[in-house]
Amino acid sequence: MSLSKFFVLSVLHHRPMHGYEIVQAVEKTTNGCCSPTEGTVYPMLNEFEAGGYLSSKREVVQGRERKIYGLTDKGRDAFQTAVAAWLEATDCILAGKATADAVQHSQGRARSP
């Protein structure tokens, strides 16, 4: 699962939201690291909904009709699976960095008089 999709499921894991609110929440949650556009989020929401990961309902929010998206049980399960996968990937990245740091450190010692 891509990081963008992961972050969308992540913000919806907290509560149901409408599309623009999801865009804002992802940007805020990631401190601007991931700034999806509505043009990328809405197709993703449609894909998640078609796959049974999200459900939606129409509500009036601030005088405007909005489509509110929420995770289904399948969506919550997919999010938990994605969390485990991204944690595993993070562990691999951190292990690689530690190895690279150790090699760099040992090479620095070997060059010292």
Description:
- The chain is an alpha+beta fold.
- It has a single domain, classed as Winged helix-like DNA-binding domain superfamily/Winged helix DNA-binding domain (Arc Repressor Mutant, subunit A, Orthogonal Bundle).
- It has four helices and three strands; from the N terminus they run αβααββα.
- It has helices at 3-14, 19-29, 38-50, 73-111; strands spanning 17-18, 54-61, 64-71.
- A three-stranded antiparallel beta sheet has the order 1-3-2.
- A hairpin with a 2-residue loop joins β2 (54-61) and β3.
- The longest helix is centred in the last third of the chain and has 39 residues, at 73-111.
- The chain is elongated, with a radius of gyration of 20 Å.
- The model has no long low-confidence stretch (mean pLDDT 88).
List keywords for this structure.
PadR family transcriptional regulator; Tscrpt_reg_PadR_N; 4 helices; 113 residues; WH_DNA-bd_sf; WH-like_DNA-bd_sf; 66% helix
What is CATH's topology name? Arc Repressor Mutant, subunit A
- Helix fraction, binned, reads 55-70%
CATH homology group? Winged helix-like DNA-binding domain superfamily/Winged helix DNA-binding domain
Helix/strand/pairing class, anyone?
alpha+beta
CATH architecture descriptor name: Orthogonal Bundle
Number of domains: 1
CATH class: Mainly Alpha
Main sheet overview: 3 strands, antiparallel
Across the major sheet, the strand order is 1-3-2
Low-confidence stretches: none
- Counting DSSP H or I runs of 4 or more residues, the number of helices is 4
What is the tally of beta strands?
Answer: 3
Report the portion of residues in β strands.
15-25%
* Average pLDDT number: 88
Pattern of helices and strands: HEHHEEH
The rough form would be described as elongated
Radius of gyration: 20 Å
Report the span from N to C terminus: 49 Å
